[in-house]
Q: What sequence folds into this?
């Protein structure tokens, strides 16, 4: 090893440390400064202080900033930290590896590349997972948390409702997605038509819930109905229905929101699968005298079975965790409770963290089969390569 | 197929499109109607007198943006969403590169952890994280929220990017190695530019997910005006002004505008990401 190389490495080490220090300091400053609406003015005032313009700093601290420039400053800072900052960290980590003696250098490098990801995964998923399981059997009533919540009327209601959601919302979205994909496949402006069904995927569940609360509005009989559904109901001469209060209509009305949101996803994936079914197969069946319905149920559906399973499990997982829709529309009242909403209530309304943890564990147990399935599929894929 | 045979299919398609668009149309139309009108007649009645001046107004929007403070919330949503999208992508891309093109002990086990974490419900993390954040004074901070969203988005990011990066041509990687490129050079100059489609698909998922999220922002940011996101404020409006439909419809539309634009302009990448198999916890 020559002297030049050593010097280069020392210089790089210096830069790497300096980079890490700058990003670390910037992150710390952000923590302290970017917490509230005065963040931007405090940030700039701090900068004024550093360059010695105390007068401007004090003035800015006193009068604050207009909201729009203030947001822009915070946004700029955040973007700089989130983009440039993260790159500096990764680059610095890589440079530090170059300092490792060459014998070990290349065997260390992969772990350094994985380190940032696994740090976050451990902190935000693995550690909390273990901690939640631990709290669920040590806090509140300890081990009796589980018998206790399972005996609770609200939790039982929630479990039954989650089951209804699981079957109806998943089944509904997949079935509708399949039928729509097949129907749209046969018209000219397929892409345009699909966009309309697909669009709700961009919307938040909160937004969708506001939209449907408006659709489901109820006014006493005789008053003009301003919600579409009850306008139709009274239009055919029936009494208006208080949709969000009427059991069991309300749960199905909430499920309809989920179906409206998720059908687009099922449609897109299944449509791609349908287009992958070989034409010769369909032609052969038609020549043998199969009707269009038979072609669909006997040939197309069986050939795209793997896609149907993937779509169903993905939607099923989303449905099991449903929270926003119930939280925004009924808050779990009128027998519409679901597990995720129950957990949130235990956590924030009653501050029963042990009970909340055990309800979360129930939810976890429900997605456990999907986790196992994903792992098995992954193993199979790896084996094929 | 003859025209007669096609007609029922066409009719069905138009009917489905109409049903799917009806809810959003109602919201959109109502958000431009005066308060008194929204409260007393159905939104569809506008089509009987669409050209009268009294039918339409934009005052709901100015009302909800200024009086209800949605401008501030809009800014918060932007400030939270962009870094919460960029951070996990960058970190995940490096990890995905290591998984795809480096050989090391424990590779399969470490990747299996990512697969397992794909569908873990966020509810499983809330109690411990809330406690940790309270102790570290991270509750109600932007940085804390970015990191939480980054952590929750990582499994899907690593998984999607791994699928893509591992399918890049082997010869390309090998010839770069022979030319003396280091792993870092290859990652930065070859892998990142070549993976743009995959990076874009995940970026859209994460962007929509963070922008539209309610749970994480309720738990880590709270609902008070200073740092609350648009979605959290909209949820709060439902509670406080639940019958003021002129305000709610305008507020809901404000919260949807950005995701709709992003979604419609980048639909291609979104579809590609979905077809690459996507599940998120």
A:
């Amino acid at each position: 090893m020559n002297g030049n190389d050593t010097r280069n490495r020392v210089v790089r080490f210096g830069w790497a440390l300096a980079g890490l220090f700058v990003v670390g300091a910037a992150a710390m400053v952000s923590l302290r400064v970017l917490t509230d609406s005065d963040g931007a003015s405090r940030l700039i005032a701090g900068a004024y202080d550093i360059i010695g313009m105390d007068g401007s700093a004090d003035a800015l601290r006193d009068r604050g900033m207009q909201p729009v420039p203030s947001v822009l400053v915070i946004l700029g800072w955040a973007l700089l930290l989130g983009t440039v900052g993260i790159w500096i960290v990764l680059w610095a980590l890589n440079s530090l590896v170059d300092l490792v003696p060459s014998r070990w250098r290349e065997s260390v490098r992969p772990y350094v590349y994985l380190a940032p990801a696994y740090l976050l995964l451990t902190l935000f998923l693995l550690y909390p997972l273990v901690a939640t399981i631990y709290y669920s059997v040590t806090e509140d009533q300890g081990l009796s948390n589980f018998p206790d919540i399972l005996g609770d009327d609200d939790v039982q209601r929630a479990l039954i409702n989650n089951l209804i959601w699981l079957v109806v919302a998943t089944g509904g979205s997949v079935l509708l997605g399949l039928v729509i994909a097949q129907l749209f496949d046969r018209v000219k402006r397929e892409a345009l038509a699909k966009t309309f069904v697909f669009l709700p995927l961009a919307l938040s569940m909160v937004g969708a819930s506001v939209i449907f609360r408006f659709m489901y509005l109820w006014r006493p009989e005789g008053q003009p109905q301003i919600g579409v559904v009850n306008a139709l109901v009274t239009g055919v001469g029936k009494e208006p229905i208080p949709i969000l209060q009427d059991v069991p209509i309300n749960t199905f009305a909430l499920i309809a929101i989920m179906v409206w949101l998720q059908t687009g996803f099922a449609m897109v994936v299944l449509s791609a699968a349908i287009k992958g079914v070989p034409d010769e197969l369909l032609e052969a069946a038609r020549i043998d005298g199969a009707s269009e319905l038979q072609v669909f149920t006997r040939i197309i559906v069986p050939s795209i079975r793997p896609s149907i399973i993937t779509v169903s499990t993905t939607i099923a997982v989303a449905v099991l965790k449903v929270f926003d829709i119930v939280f925004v529309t009924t808050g779990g009242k009128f027998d519409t409770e679901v597990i995720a909403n129950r957990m949130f209530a235990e956590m924030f309304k009653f501050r029963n963290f042990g009970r909340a943890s055990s309800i979360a564990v129930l939810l976890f147990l429900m997605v456990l089969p999907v986790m196992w399935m994903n792992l098995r599929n992954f193993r199979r894929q790896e084996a094929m390569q | 197929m003859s025209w007669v045979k096609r007609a029922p299919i066409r009719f069905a398609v138009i009917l489905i499109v109409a049903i799917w668009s009806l809810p959003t149309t109602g919201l959109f139309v109502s958000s431009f109607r005066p308060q008194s009108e929204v409260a007393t007649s159905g939104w569809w009645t506008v089509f009987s007198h669409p050209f009268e001046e009294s039918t339409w107004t934009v005052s709901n929007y100015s009302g909800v943006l200024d009086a209800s403070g949605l401008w501030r919330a809009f800014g918060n949503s932007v400030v939270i969403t962009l870094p919460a999208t960029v951070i996990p992508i960058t970190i995940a891309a490096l990890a995905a590169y290591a998984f795809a093109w480096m050989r090391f002990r424990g590779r399969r086990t470490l990747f299996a952890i990512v697969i397992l974490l794909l569908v873990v419900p966020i509810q499983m993390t809330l109690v411990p994280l809330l406690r940790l954040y309270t102790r570290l004074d991270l509750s109600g901070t932007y940085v804390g929220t970015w990191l939480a969203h980054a952590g929750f988005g990582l499994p899907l990011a690593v998984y999607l990017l791994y699928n893509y990066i591992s399918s890049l041509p082997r010869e390309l990687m090998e010839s770069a190695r022979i030319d003396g490129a280091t792993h870092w050079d290859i990652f930065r100059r070859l892998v990142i530019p070549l993976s743009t489609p995959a990076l874009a698909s995940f970026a859209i998922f994460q962007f929509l997910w963070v922008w539209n999220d309610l749970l994480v922002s309720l738990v880590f940011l709270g609902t008070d005006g200073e740092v609350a996101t648009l979605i959290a404020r909209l949820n709060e409006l439902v509670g406080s002004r639940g019958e003021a439909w002129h305000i709610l419809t305008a507020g809901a539309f404000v919260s949807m505008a950005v995701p709709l634009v992003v979604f419609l302009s980048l639909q291609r990448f979104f579809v590609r990401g979905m077809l690459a198999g996507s599940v998120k916890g």
